Structures are given as C-alpha cells and as structure tokens.
C-alpha cells in the first residue's frame, strides 16, 4: 500500500447531468495540499460554500449519499468519492457548478479516466491509515444486512448481494488490491435499479437525469407495451424505444461483467468509506450493503478511530487487551489514592459503552472498618467505581477535557445483589442511555466472575473546572 499522501498533478473538468436532480453541472477536480482531504465546493452559490466530504455532513441517503451544510448540498457523491478512494488520492478540491455531479454512464470510470489523464502526484506527508486491530461489526437483522471489518495489514473488500430475482440472483465480488484491480475491474461498473422501482423513484422526484444509457434496469416484473410507454413518459423517454429484455435487462442491454451489480455495490461502498476521511487497513465483508448501512458502519469506524486517537494520547505503552491502564486513567480523571477505584479500561466505544476493571484486595484501606473480621466492599464505593468508569466515557468525548469535571446529579435503581470481598475482580460495564448537551444518563452493571453483584442508573453533568472553583468559593 502507498506510504505517502497523493493528489492530482493539475486540475481537470467534466460536463454532464445529475442523475437525480437532472441539473447540468461541470465538475472540476483540483490538486490540494497535504491534510486537505476531500472537499466539495458549490461555485454556483454565493460565497462558494465548501462542504467537507465526511460522515458529519451526510444529510440524505435516499438512493445515494448526499452531503451538505445549511442550504448547500451535493447529491450522489459516491461515484466521485469512489473514484478518488479507488485511485488512493488523499487530497482533492472538487468544484461544481450545480448540486450534483454528472452521472455520465452511471459508473466511476469517466471520473477515473479524467483524473488519470492529468496524472497523480505523491506528496511529502505520510498517509494517515486507520489500522483495524479488532473486529468491528454493524448488523441490521430485520433487513439481513451485515458489515464487518477484520484486522488486516492491507485493504480488501468483499460484497455479497441477494435480491431474490431470477435476472440478478445472488452475486458476490471481491477487491483485493486497489492499485491493480480498481481501474480495470470495478470503476466501470454501472448503477442499477429494478423496473418496479422506476415509477416510484420518478414519483419521489428522483432520477430526473436518469435514462437507459446511464443505468442498468433489471426486469423484475412483467409489463405490457402500453405500460412501458406510460412509464417512459414519467422519465422523459420515448416509450417506443423500450422493450422488456429477453436477458432480464431492459432493452437487452449487456452487462460489462457477469456480476456487475455486485461490483457496483462494492464501488458505492468505497465511495461511502471515503467519508471516514482516511484510508483503512482492514478486510471488509459486506452482505447486502446499501448507503444507509454503509453510513452507519462508517460512523462506527470513525468512533473507533477517535477512541484509538485518545488511547494513543493517554496510553503511552500499548498493552494487549487494555485500552487504558492505571497510569493512563490518572491522566484522564483527577481522582487519586485512596479514591481512584478503576485499575484499567478494557473496552471502550466512544460515547456508547465502556468496561472497566477494579481489582479488590485486602490492602484496601476501607476494609479496616468495613467490617473487622468480615471484610466487605462498601456498596457506595462500588457505585463510585461505576461513576469513575462512566466519567471516563463522558470526558473523553470532549475537546479540552483537562478543563472539565464530571459532577453526578443522581443515582437511581441501585441494587446490590451479592457482597464483594477481597480477592474479587469487579468488571463494570457502563452504557450511555441519553446525552443532551452537558447532561448524561448511563446505566452500569458490576460483575464478579460473570455474576451480577450491583447495578444502577446514574446521571451526571460535565462542567468547566473554573465554574466549579467559583461555586466552591461561594
């Protein structure tokens, strides 16, 4: 895989019509400096608003991935982004004179060809790869969708689709080397839809720029000629030019690959992965992916990346099975002996879930009085350990956390199931339930050897240290 960041040698432009908006647009790819990423610019709007192509700016996922800021939007970004991602370009300014890139032939190849015509330029800064070191999963059981990223010191992606249609059936496709396979084997795969969807899409105000030349229409229902003609009027086509194909595709169009739909799904997924803002090293396995699922999966990857960034900041020595050790925890929260009650963090999903561990020993100072001859860890200290674990989950999601404190506002539904004694290891799992501005609610459960010993719901607020100091003086 490439080591250094990459951009274009010079700018290049294409003209065309947007698939869904039907608006004519010129798209211009321009070189950009290191660390710039991908940014779309609407040059047709006042002040030429700039929209970063990242997961935070996704505003719509109907039949494509739309990004935007305020009233400025870019529709159907995936084919452009897959071209950039597939060519391993890291930095590019993408200027448009309209709201949607040209659909061209429904694939990424026109963009790829245009970019390659001006050449690529390696830059001086190294690439910022997201290295996947653990399994990351996204599932939608109701739609039988699964996307998984597995550890791998390179990039591979495999996609399976199953539409239960005779013309399409089950298909799969895999890309194992971007540099060798993307341009020739995937970039030219065209977008597709089913004949039964065309009318609905037209009624939704979509595919205004669609025609039989820029999409593969798969026949999934019988339709008489007069019905075809009525449908053709909705999309601005000549009905006499349409026919139900004998090969299961409208107008008997030939596929560029036997599994072209699966390859296009893979192409779309590359475009959506580009929204992460960095290339990844992983093996990605996707069953029945779509833009909505892709976006949710990228959100998981982004949280993983943010967690790793935090871990690198506070956990100076990497240790197997540990996110934060006791020294890292002391860098994060202000508690000290004898009130630092978490020894390590072993699992952490940013703003969602955290698992901390407390080793309970006879040396704990509270055992001298609780109780002599019958040492039992005080329930209030178990709750405090829960609070500290949850506090790490809350504070780490905030910029400038050194200037923040977590104050607890309430404890509800606390239950103590079994006593905790010296020699026990408390495993505390806290899950975020709700977060509104600076007020958070999370539930915690503490286990010893897999048995529940304590559970509670806690509410907390994150405040500035300066505000806390002012209140203390008053």
From TrEMBL:
Transmembrane segments: none annotated. GO terms for biological process: fatty acid biosynthetic process; lipid A biosynthetic process. SUPFAM superfamilies: Ribosomal protein S5 domain 2-like, Thioesterase/thiol ester dehydrase-isomerase. It is found in: Cytoplasm. Its cofactor is Zn(2+). It catalyses: a UDP-3-O-[(3R)-3-hydroxyacyl]-N-acetyl-alpha-D-glucosamine + H2O = a UDP-3-O-[(3R)-3-hydroxyacyl]-alpha-D-glucosamine + acetate; a (3R)-hydroxyacyl-[ACP] = a (2E)-enoyl-[ACP] + H2O. Zn(2+) binds at residues 79, 264, 268. GO terms for cellular component: cytoplasm; membrane. Signal peptide: none annotated. The keyword Ligase does not apply. Pathway: Glycolipid biosynthesis; lipid IV(A) biosynthesis; lipid IV(A) from (3R)-3-hydroxytetradecanoyl-[acyl-carrier-protein] and UDP-N-acetyl-alpha-D-glucosamine: step 2/6. The active site is at 291 (proton donor), 370. Keywords: Cytoplasm, Hydrolase, Lipid A biosynthesis, Lipid biosynthesis, Lipid metabolism, Lyase, Metal-binding, Zinc. Its EC number is 4.2.1.59, 3.5.1.108. Involved in unsaturated fatty acids biosynthesis. Catalyzes the dehydration of short chain beta-hydroxyacyl-ACPs and long chain saturated and unsaturated beta-hydroxyacyl-ACPs. NCBIfam families: fabZ (TIGR01750), PRK00006.1 (NF000582), PRK13188.1 (NF009667). This is Multifunctional fusion protein. It comes from Chloroherpeton thalassium (strain ATCC 35110 / GB-78). The gene is lpxC.
């Amino acid at each position: 895989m490439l080591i250094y960041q990459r951009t274009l040698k010079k700018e290049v432009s294409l003209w065309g019509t947007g698939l869904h908006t039907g608006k004519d647009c010129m798209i211009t790819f321009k070189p950009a400096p290191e660390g710039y990423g991908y940014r779309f610019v609407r040059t047709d709007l006042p002040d030429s608003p700039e929209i970063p192509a990242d997961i935070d700016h996704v505003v719509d996922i109907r039949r494509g991935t739309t990004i935007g800021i305020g009233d400025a939007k870019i529709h159907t970004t995936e084919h452009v982004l897959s071209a950039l991602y597939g060519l391993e370009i890291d930095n590019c300014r993408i200027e448009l004179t309209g709201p949607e890139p040209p659909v061209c032939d429904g694939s990424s190849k026109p963009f790829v060809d245009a970019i390659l015509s001006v050449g690529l330029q390696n830059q001086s800064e190294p690439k910022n790869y997201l290295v996947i070191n653990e399994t990351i999963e996204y599932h939608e059981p109701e739609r039988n969708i699964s996307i998984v990223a597995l550890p791998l010191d390179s990039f591979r992606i495999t996609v399976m689709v199953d539409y239960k249609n005779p013309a399409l059936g089950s298909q799969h496709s895999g890309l194992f080397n971007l540099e060798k396979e993307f341009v020739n084997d995937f970039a030219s795969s065209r977008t597709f839809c089913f004949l039964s969807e065309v009318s609905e899409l037209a009624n939704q105000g979509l595919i205004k720029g669609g025609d039989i030349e820029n999409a593969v229409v798969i026949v999934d229902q019988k339709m008489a000629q007069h019905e075809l003609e009525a449908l053709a009027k909705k999309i601005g086509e000549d009905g006499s030019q349409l026919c139900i194909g004998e090969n299961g595709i409208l107008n008997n169009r030939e596929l560029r690959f036997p599994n072209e739909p699966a390859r296009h799904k893979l192409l779309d997924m590359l475009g959506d992965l580009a929204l992460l803002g960095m290339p990844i090293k992983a093996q990605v396995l996707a069953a029945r992916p779509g833009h909505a699922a892709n976006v949710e999966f990228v959100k998981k990857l982004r949280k993983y990346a943010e967690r790793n960034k935090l871990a690198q900041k506070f956990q100076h020595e990497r240790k197997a099975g540990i996110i934060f050790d006791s020294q890292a925890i002391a860098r994060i929260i202000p508690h000290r002996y004898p009130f630092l009650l978490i020894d390590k963090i072993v699992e952490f999903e940013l703003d969602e879930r955290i698992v901390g561990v407390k080793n309970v020993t006879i040396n704990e100072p509270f055992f001298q009085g609780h109780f002599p001859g019958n040492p039992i860890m005080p329930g209030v200290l178990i709750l405090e350990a829960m609070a500290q674990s949850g506090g790490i989950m809350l504070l780490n999601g905030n910029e400038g956390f050194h200037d923040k404190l977590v104050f607890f506002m309430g404890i509800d539904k606390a239950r103590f199931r079994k006593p905790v004694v010296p020699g026990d290891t408390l495993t505390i799992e806290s899950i975020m339930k709700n977060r509104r501005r600076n007020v958070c609610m999370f539930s915690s459960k503490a286990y010893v050897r897999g048995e529940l010993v304590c559970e509670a719901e806690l509410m907390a607020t994150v405040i500035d240290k300066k505000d806390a100091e002012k209140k203390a003086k008053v």
